[in-house]
Amino acid sequence: MQISVAVGEVRGPATWAEIATQARAAANAGFTTAWVSQALGWDALTTLAAVGGGLDIAVGTSVVPTPQRHPMTLAAQALTVQAAVAGRLTLGVGAGIGAMVTGMLGLSADRPAARMREYLTVLGPLLRGETVDHRGETLTAVGAVTIPGAVPAPSVLVAAMGPRMVGLAGELADGAATWMTGPRVLAEHIVPGITAAAAAAGRPAPRIVAGLPVCLTDAEDDVRTRIAEQFALATQVPEYRATLDREGVAGPRDIAIVGTATRVRRALARLDDAGVTEFMAVPFGTAAEQDRTVELLAELVGENR
Length: 305
Hints:
Helix content: 40-55%
Radius of gyration: 18 Å
Low-confidence stretches: none
Largest sheet: 8 strands, parallel, barrel
Shape: globular
């Protein structure tokens, strides 16, 4: 299992200088990928184009919501980044949190899997430089996106938790990206589901990138309490609530990787055993806590080389 790291606001409020510093540190430590999430602040793809070009590290979005981005627009953004980072982009996409899509943007969020199927059907060819002529139930896309130097096509991952989205990630994408998803759900639902879907579609073995907060600490209870506060929204959002219930936990504090170096190592081994191909670490806590955590993870990266 590879180990990568998230940079930017998913780790807490961050200035541009702090994001750039986190990305440089990730590259210098030998992490597989520097991931940026799309939230309500920094634009993930713009950030990656700006910080990724001068660094020796793969970059990725985990994830960009698709409802507010037409696939031709997203393809142009992604291929621009792909050219800027010399072919090292992984494009993670997701259906978005339904309540935010409707409440904040006034867009439809019904039938997310059906919408994602159409979206991926169009996005894939566009990323390969092909012309599309799609007039479907939920979107229309006619034309092509041409950006010299944007090769090969970016790898595409889908934010997948429910069975239908897991199937799409295996059938029409290169794998899945998960967030706040524990080892039981990964081992029993996501990994076997996406692997079977990829095999049925004649696709290569899928990537499964699992993201969780992680903190190296001796004050485990305190850190878990802070995680519960910072990520409280996950307990209220139906998409995440269902996954937490399948895991048999109350909230993010129960699946975050927190504790001594021994406990962190054991938790990562459990993810590896579940079939995760890449762990996306989201260092949590104060700057000092995050630095200690990153140092431990960098040691593990070195041991796995």
